[in-house]
Hints:
- This protein is mainly alpha-helical.
- The protein is built from six helices and two strands.
- The chain has helices spanning about 5-20, 25, 30-35, 40-50, 55-75, 80-100; strands at about 1-5, 105.
- It has a two-stranded parallel ribbon.
Amino acid sequence: MTDWTILWPSASQAAVSAADTIPTDLSSRLDPIIDAREPRFRALLLAWADRALDEETIEAEFEDERYVLESELLAVDGMPMDVATSAAAAVLDVIEAGLREGIAL
């Protein structure tokens, strides 16, 4: 089981690593955007743990969050679309891997 306080920084770092092809001035602007989404992801996971969401719903919510994160990253002036897409996907990949192992919220 992975603790959320370890998992979230890993997800954030995965996004930054996925964006390693962009200039440093752009990559330094990723962290605040990604970290702003943390409460929403945590709330979704808490709802999932409480069985307030079924599998289909949480998958749809995660897809919505991926889209929102990607859109927010694209709002950064000069952010390439492929980098925003990869960074958003990296966050979800880490969270979904954590779900398979179990997450201590």
